[in-house]
Each structure stands twice: as structure tokens, then as C-alpha cells.
Amino acid sequence: MRWLFACALVVVAAGSGGLVYLARGTTTKTPAQPRFTAAMTWKAGQKAAPDFALRDQNGKPISISSLRGHPVVVTFIDPVCRSLCPLEARVLTAATQKLPASQRPTIVAVSVNPPEDKAANFAADRVHWQLGSNWRWAVGTRAQLARVWRRYQVAVLATTKKINGIVLRSVVHTEASFIVDPSGFERAVYIYPFSGSDLAQNVRDVAKN
């Protein structure tokens, strides 16, 4: 069942932020408790990960095809988020840093807030979010990023409002992380909050295949 990009939008509040995902059908239910394991898994060779051609935080090209031969975690992050994104980033880094170097994935963070894709923000995130050396941002124009969001079935809702003459921008999005195996196929998707140990085990399994 394709439950991420269809017709019903569900917002699940979590702490001071929220999870957004798209579900098929006209009726949806909010789960009583968060799911800490993978929300969906696929067999090897079943579902190719959508490729893209973006740039990382250092201006170098980044794509799924260029990372073949090693596992990859594709996630979607707002670089100036102060709610869920930092928490998810720390879980991803902590979980993957415990893996042997041969199994450690590259974490590709596709930006969901292109106006804030600035070197200063990326540098601050690396320090305050405790990002590992295997973390790379994927940035581009809004049109380029929007194509990636759609292909991964990730919802991104940006709103602006003016308070006392100051324009405030808010971004709510799907807190999704996809495990991509060394052959470039999606193997699992996690919706935050999730268990770092479960994700690490899944990465370990696909790295061996």
C-alpha cells in the first residue's frame, strides 16, 4: 500500500513539532503510539531509489547513483528546524556511527527549506546537532528539490506570517528516512520517531547483501 503520497494529509503533533505524511484513501486514523520500527520494507531489487542530481554543502555533485557500492540513508531535513529535525539527525548519526566502517552509510539530508541552505546554517548544525562525518546535505533550487520530494513521496508545507513587521517562515514536512542498499534499491523507510538500533540493524543487513 502506497501510504506516503496520495490524497489525505495527516499531521501528527510530536513535542513542539509535527510529523506530516500522506496516506491513500479518504479515511485515516492517528496511531495511538508511535511506531519505532520501519514503516515499510522492500525486498532486494524490488524498488529502485529515485535518483537525483544536486549539490552538497561544499558545492560538490551528489546523487544516489554516485554512491553505489555502499548503503545510503536518504532523509529530509530543515537546516534551521528547532523541533524534530535535530532529534532525528542525532538518532541517525548515533545509530550509524556505531556500525563498522565498511557498513556505515552515507547520510544524505535533502533540504526541505531551500532559502535557509546557507554555509553558516550547515556549520552550526554540524556542531549543535552533533552530525557525523558521514553526513552530507543535498541542496538545489526549490524546483530541483521539489522534484526530489515528490519522487520520494515526501510532503513539504511552507507557510509565512508577519508579526510586528517581521516575516516568519515555518516548514512542516514528512520526517522520513529511507535506507538504500549498495545496489541503489530502497529497502526500508522510517518515520520519526524511530529506533536507532532498529535502523542500524536494517542498514547492517542490507550492507551484507
Helix-strand layout with pairing:
Elements: E1 8-14, E2 17-23, E3 40-41, E4 54-55, E5 61-62, E6 72-77, H1 84-97, E7 106-111, H2 119-128, E8 135-138, H3 142-151, E9 156-163, E10 166-173, E11 176-180, E12 186-191, H4 196-208
Parallel strand pairs: 6-7, 7-8
Antiparallel strand pairs: 1-2, 3-12, 4-5, 6-11, 9-10, 11-12
Helix pairs in contact: 1-4
What does the model show?
It is a single chain. The two termini are 25 Å apart. It contains 4 helices and 12 strands, in the order ββββββαβαβαββββα. Strand 7, helix 2 and strand 8 form a beta-alpha-beta unit. It is an alpha+beta fold. It is globular and about 55 Å long. Helix 1 packs across helix 4. It is 22% helix and 30% strand.
Low-pLDDT windows of residues: 1-28
> What is the name of the CATH class?
Alpha Beta
User: How many domains is the backbone divided into?
Assistant: 1
Alpha plus pi helix count: 4
CA(first)-CA(last) distance: 25 Å
Fill in the keyword field for this structure.
209 residues, alpha+beta, Glutaredoxin, six-stranded mixed sheet, two-stranded antiparallel ribbon, 4 helices, 12 strands, 22% helix, disordered N terminus
Quick summary of this structure?
This protein is an alpha+beta fold. The protein has helices at residues 84-97, 119-128, 142-151, 196-208, and strands spanning 8-14, 17-23, 40-41, 54-55, 61-62, 72-77, 106-111, 135-138, 156-163, 166-173, 176-180, 186-191.
